[in-house]
Write a structure and sequence with these properties.
single chain, 0% strand
Length: 186
C-alpha cells in the first residue's frame, strides 16, 4: 500500500510540474506576442507619418519622383507584411527608402529649412528610436521563450503542446545600417 502512495505522489508531482511548465511557456509565448504587437504599433505610427513626409518633400523636389515612389511602394509593402520575418524584410526596404528621402533634404535648402519637414523628420527620428527599443524587447522575449522550450525537462513535452521555436526580428544584411537612427541634419 505504501508503494502505491509513493507512485501516486510521484505522478501528482509530475502532473503539477507539467502544469507549471506549461503555464510558464504560455506566459513566455504571450510575452513574445505582446512584444511583437508593440513593434507593430510603432511601425503603424511610422507608416502614418510617411505620407505627410512624402507630400512635404514632393512640393520641393517634384523631379525626384523615383525616390518618392520607392518610399510609397516600400510603405505599402511594409503595411501588408505578416509575421516577424516578412515585417523585418519589408521594414528594411522601407528604412532604406526613407534614408534616401531624408538625404534629399541636403540637395534642397528650402526643404531643409521648412518647419513642417523639420517636425516630420524629428518625429521620424523619434519613432526610429522607439522601434529599435521595441525590437530589442521583442528579441529578448523571443530569446527567453526559445530558451524556455529548450530547457530540460520542459523540452520533453514543449513540442507535444505545440510550442515551437520563434524567429527573432532580424535585420538581415543591413543590420549596421538600421542599428542607428537615420541622421537628420538641418
Amino acid at each position: 500500500m505504501s508503494t502505491s502512495w509513493i507512485v501516486i505522489g510521484v505522478i501528482v508531482l509530475l502532473v503539477l510540474f507539467a502544469f507549471s511548465a506549461y503555464n510558464r511557456l504560455v506566459a513566455l509565448s504571450q510575452r513574445v506576442n505582446q512584444a511583437f504587437a508593440d513593434i507593430d504599433v510603432q511601425l503603424k505610427q511610422r507608416h502614418d507619418l510617411i505620407p505627410n513626409l512624402v507630400e512635404t518633400v514632393k512640393g520641393y523636389a517634384s523631379h525626384e519622383r523615383g525616390t518618392l515612389e520607392d518610399v510609397i511602394k516600400a510603405r505599402n509593402s511594409a503595411m501588408s507584411a505578416q509575421g516577424p520575418a516578412q515585417v523585418s524584410a519589408a521594414e528594411n526596404q522601407l528604412s532604406g527608402a526613407l534614408g534616401r528621402l531624408i538625404a534629399l533634404s541636403e540637395a534642397y535648402p528650402d526643404l531643409k529649412a521648412n518647419a513642417n519637414f523639420q517636425q516630420l523628420a524629428s518625429e521620424l527620428s523619434d519613432l526610429e528610436n522607439k522601434i529599435a527599443a521595441s525590437r530589442r524587447f521583442f528579441n529578448n522575449a523571443v530569446q527567453e521563450y526559445n530558451t524556455g522550450i529548450q530547457q530540460m525537462p520542459a523540452a520533453l513535452f514543449a513540442g507535444t503542446f505545440g510550442f515551437t521555436r520563434k524567429d527573432f526580428f532580424d535585420l538581415g544584411t543591413s543590420r549596421a545600417e538600421v542599428e542607428t537612427a537615420p541622421s537628420v541634419k538641418f
